[in-house]
């Protein structure tokens, strides 16, 4: 009998409602589906990447009610009633957002795999602390891993984006 209960819990589904990148979404999902898989498979938003699937690398970082979370560590049902922002939601009317523009201008990406996680982490940071220096940026992004860039251009891009926000 325990096997039957396990099979039932794996097959259980639940309807969830949330706001994704400004649009209301309602879906029925398996209760054990990861938020990252929901974002990529059910919503077709593929900028959120799965790297380590242990919450270590930061490639799956999204904003949930304005706070950065590792979507590989959360179940989709835990996002019920929340506002979810992915990299696709950072752009404005099909144009790159200021943070994305600074990443491009500073050459802060190479392979691009980690980029969405860095941008989402930086987006939260910029909302909380509009005036930043390199030291604070390095501290804030220390939970995101990049194997290509050496971080210098990523830091430069975030500092420039912060200066741009303050100048507005």
Q: Would you mind describing this structure in some detail?
A:
The protein is of the alpha+beta class and 168 residues long. The chain has two domains: 12-89, Ubiquitin-like (UB roll) (Roll), CATH 3.10.20.30; 98-167, [2Fe-2S]-binding domain (DNA polymerase, domain 1, Orthogonal Bundle), CATH 1.10.150. The chain is built from six helices and five strands, in the order αββαβββαααα. A five-stranded mixed β-sheet has the order 2-1-5-3-4, with helices on both faces. A hairpin with a 2-residue loop joins strand 1 (13-20) and strand 2. Helix 3 (98-105) packs across helix 6. The N and C termini lie far apart (63 Å). The relative contact order is 0.14. The mean pLDDT is 93.
> How much strand?
15-25%
CATH superfamily of the largest domain: Beta-grasp domain
Question: What is the average per-residue confidence, as pLDDT, rounded to a whole number?
Answer: 93
**Derived structural class:** alpha+beta
Low-pLDDT stretches: none
CATH topology of the largest domain: Ubiquitin-like (UB roll)
Number of domains: 2
Straight-line distance between termini: 63 Å
Please tally the helical runs, counting DSSP H or I stretches of 4 or more residues.
6
Instruction: Sketch the topology as an H/E string, one letter per element.
Output: HEEHEEEHHHH
Report helical residue fraction. 25-40%
Outline the biggest β-sheet: 5 strands, mixed
- Give me the Rg, rounded: 17 Å
Walk across the major sheet and give the strand order. Answer: 2-1-5-3-4
Q: State the CATH class of the largest domain.
A: Alpha Beta
From the 3D coordinates, which CATH architecture of the largest domain would you assign?
Roll
Give the overall shape. elongated
Number-wise, the strands total 5
